[in-house]
Design goal:
The complex is a heterotrimer.
Chain A lengths: L3 E12 L2 E12 L3 E5 L6 H9 L6 E6 L2 E2 L10 E4 L11 H11 L4 H14 L15 H13 L5 E5 L7 H18 L2 E6 L2 H7 L2 E6 L2 E6 L1 H6 L4 H6 L4 E9 L2 E4 L2 E4 L9 E7 L4 E4 L7 E9 L4 E7 L4 E6 L8 E6 L5 E4 L5
Chain B lengths: L7 H22 L1 E4 L2 E4 L2 H6 L2 H33 L6 H9 L6 H12 L4 H8 L11 H26 L2 H9 L4 H30 L2 H7 L6 H12 L2 H25 L10
Antiparallel strand pairs in B: 1-2
Chain C lengths: L1 H26 L16 H8 L1 H33 L3 H16 L2 H14 L6 H26 L4 H7 L4 H30 L2 H6 L7 H10 L4 H28 L10
Helix pairs in contact in C: 1-11, 2-11, 3-6, 3-8, 4-6, 6-8, 7-8, 8-11
Classes of the chains: A alpha+beta, B mainly alpha, C mainly alpha.
The structure holds adenosine-5'-diphosphate and magnesium ion.
The site of adenosine-5'-diphosphate has 11 residues of chain A, from strand 2 and helix 1.
Amino acid sequence: MSKHIIELVDLVKDYDGTEALKGINLYIRQNEFITFLGPSGCGKTTTLRLIGGFEKPTSGKIIFEGVDITDMPPYKRKVNTVFQKYALFPHMNVFENIAFGLRIKKTDKKVISEKVSRMLKLVNLEGFEKRSVDSLSGGQQQRVAIARALVNEPEVLLLDEPLGALDLKLRKEMQLELKRMQQQLGITFIYVTHDQEEALTMSDTIVVMQNGTIQQIGTPEDIYNEPKNAFVADFIGESNIIDGVMLRDYRVRFAGHEFDCVDKGFGINEDVDVVIRPEDIRLVPRDESPLQGTVKSVIFKGVHYEMQVDDHNGYGWIVHSTSMEPENTDVGLQISPQDIQIMKKVSAI
Amino acid sequence: MKKGWISYPYILWMIIFTIVPLLLVMYYGFTKTENGTTVLTPDNFIRVMEPTYLKVLWRSVLLALVSTVVCFIIGYPVAMILAGRDISRKSTLVLLFVIPMWMNFLLRTYAWMTLLDRKGLINTLLGALGLPQLNLLYTDFAVILGMVYNFLPFMVLPIYSVLRKIDRSLIEAAEDLGSDTVTVFRKVIFPLSLPGVVSGITMVFMPAVTTFIISKLLGGSQYMLIGNLIEDQFMRVYDWNFGSAVSIIMMLLILLSMGVMARYDKEGTGGGLF
Amino acid sequence: MKKAFGRFYLVLIFAFLYAPVLTLIVFSFNDSRSRGNWGGFTLKWYSALFRDRHVLSSLYYTLTIALLSALIATVAGTAAAIGIHNMKKILKSFVMNLTYLPVISPDIVTGISLMILFVFVRLNLGFTTLLLAHITFNIPYVILSVLPKLKQLNKHMYEAALDLGAKPLYAFFRVILPEIMPGVVTGFLLAFTLSLDDFIISFFTTGSGVSTLSITIYSMARLGINPKINALSTLMFIVVLALLLIVNKRSSANSKNGTAVMNI
Ligand SMILES: Nc1ncnc2c1ncn2[C@@H]1O[C@H](COP(=O)(O)OP(=O)(O)O)[C@@H](O)[C@H]1O
Ligand SMILES: [Mg+2]
C-alpha cells in the first residue's frame, strides 16, 4: 500500500518496575485500519497512549511522517483520540464539545458551525447541537466523542476500546459505521480491542499482542489462517492445540498416531505445538480413520454444531460441523495434511 | 495530569508552618537557657510533676471527663429521639440543633456569663420569685456548664448519624424474636451505636481538655486548666520552655485519648459530624 | 406517651441551646445596661458599636484577613489538591497526614507553635503573622473540599483537552476548573468563615495593635459584661449563619459524598 505514517522503534515502557511494553517495532501505513488485539493488560492502551503523547516511553522512538515526535506534547501532535469512557466535557453542550478543538485554532465562527454540522451529520446526530452531553445515551455520547476528534481533521485517529461500554446490537452497528467513516474520510484508524471478532471484521491489519510484545502482525486472513504460534491461534478463535513431535520434514506424531503434514524445517524429534481448527476436522465412520473417539457433547450454535469428541488418550477435540453425530457415537476424526499447523513451542508464553 | 510538583509549594508551606513549629515546641520543651547558654534538660518536664501543676493537670482531665459524661447522658437520648421514626422533618431539627453552634465560640461562652452573673438573668428571675440569689459564675459548675453547652452537639451528631444508619429490620428482627424494648436497646441498638459514642466521646473530651477560654470567662481569671497554664506561660510569664513542655504533655494526653478511643473503634466506622 | 416524653425532652434541650443565644440577642436591644431588667427597646448599642474606633479597626482587620487568607488558601489549596490527586500512593498518604495535622491538633498548640516560629525568625507579630497563620489553617479545608470533586472527574478529561490541541493552562481553565468549581467555591466560603470565626490561633499570632473582632470581644468580655458585645454578637451571628447556610446548601446540593462542613 502507501507510505508509512507512523513508525514505532524499539518502544519500551516501564511503570515502576513492571514492563508494560518490551520493545515494540511496528510500521503503520497511511489510510489503513490497524487494530491492536490482545488480552487485558497486554499493553494495548499503553501503546496508544504513547502514540497520543500522554505518556513518554522509557526508551525507543515514535516517528510520525518521518519526524521524531517522541518528546512532542499531545497538543502539537496531528493525532486525535476517542477515549474509552468518552471524556466529554460535561459543562459544555454537544456543539461546544465538538467545537473545542476548532476554537483553540481560532477558526472563524462560520466555519466552526459549518464543520460541526458536517460532523454531526457524519455521526448521525443532526439537530443535537444544543443538547447537554449528560442527556445523551451511551451510543450518542460515543458519537459525539468521535465527532469531537474527527472535526480537527487528524491524520490518525486513535480509538481505545470505543465500543466497550455499548450493548451487543449497538456494537455491531457502530463497527460498521466506524469502518464506513474511516473509508469515507480516508484517514488512518488505530484501534484497540480485546475482542477478536471485532478485530477480524473491521481491520486491514491486526497486531496481536501479549505481555508487552507483538506476537504477530498481518491481515485478518493471515492471522486467522496462519497463526504464528499457539497463543495467537488460541486467541483468534477456538483451536485444538495438542503436544506433538516432529519426526522429520512433512511427518508429525500426535495423539498416538503419525500424520502427514506440509511443514518442514524443524529439528528431528523436536517437540512442537500442533494446532487444528475445529472446522478443519471431519467426522467419518470409525474405521476410516486411525484417530478415533467418542462424541461426548453436542451443542447447536446457530450455523453449525459444536461437538466434543474424546479420543483414547482422553483429549477432548472440539469439532465444528454442519451435520451432527449423536452423543456416545464412536467416530473417526479425519484431518487433511494442509490443515495441520505445526508451531514452535514458545516457552515465553 | 501527572503534575505532582504543583503541590510542592504547599508541602513546603506545611513543613514550614506546621512541622517546624512543632519541632520548635519540642526544642523549647527540652531545653533551658541560663546566663545565655542553652542546655538540653528534662527540667521543664520534671517541673510539671510538681504538685501545683499536677493538680492543674488532674483538674483539667477531671473536668473534661465530667463534661464528657454529662454530654453523653444528656446527648444519647437526644440522638435517639432525633433518629427515631416518630420524628418527621428530621433534617430541619438537626439543622436547628446545629445552628447555635455557628455562633462564635467566645460569644456562646460570653452568653453564659451574662446569664450566670450575680446581676444576670437567672438571679434576677430567682429574685423575682423571692428565692435566694446564687453564686453561679466563677465556679466549677459554671465551667462544666460552659463545656457541656459548647460541646454537646459534638456528642449528639456522631451518635445520631450512626443510629440513623442502623437497619430497621435488625430491630424488628429482635422484637420478632421476643425481645422487649429494653433488651432490644441493650443487645442491639446500643452495641451498634458504639462507634458513634466513641467518636462523640473523643470529640467532646479533646476540646474540653484543651480549652482556656471557657475556664477563663466562666471560671474567673484565677482559674487554672492546662490551657490556661500554657496561655500564662506564653502571654504573661514568658517562660516558653515550661510552656512548651506543658504543650507537649497536652499533645501526649490528646494522642493517648485518641489511642484509647481508637481501640474501641476497631472498624474505624466512627460517625463523622454528619 | 413515649412520643410525648421525647418531644418534651427535645423542647428542653432546644431551650437549653437557644436560651443563651436568644438572651444575648434580645439584650442587645435593651435600653438598660443591666442584664437582668428590660429597659425598653433601643439601637444605641449598635450605634455605639459603629462609633467605637477599636471595634471598627478590628472589623477591618477581620474582614481583610479573612478575605486575603481565604483567597490565598483557595488558590494554594486548589493547586495542592490537584497535585495530591495525581501523587503516588506513598507520597500521597504522607501529604494527607500533613494536611490533617493542623485539623486535628488542638488550636492552642497550633497557636503557640506558630507564635514561637514567628518570634524565632524575628517576624514582628502583627498583620503579616496573622495572615500567615490564617492561610496555614485554611488551606487544609480548601484541599478537603476540592479533593472529592477531583475524584469525581473523568481522569481522561484533561488529556482529552490536550488531545484536541489545548495547552496545559488552557485545558486547566477551560475544562478542569469549571468541573471542580463547586468544590473550590465551597472551600473558599469555608476558609472565609473559619477565618472570621477564629479566636485562639489569632490570639497567639497577632500583636502590635492588630486585633480581630474575636480578640476584641475577648478583651472586652474579660473586663466584664458590655452590651456592645451583645450587639456585635448579634451581627456576627447573622453573618456567619448566612455564610454557613450557603456552604451547607452547596455541599449537600453539589455532591452527595462531599464533606459536609461545620465549624468548631
Ligand atoms: N499508569 C500505570 N501505572 C502502572 N502500571 C500501569 C499503568 N498503566 C498500565 N500499567 C500496566 O501496564 C500493563 C499494560 O497495561 P495496558 O496497556 O493498560 O493494557 P491493555 O490496554 O492491553 O489492557 C498492565 O500490566 C498494567 O497493569
Ligand atoms: Mg486497555
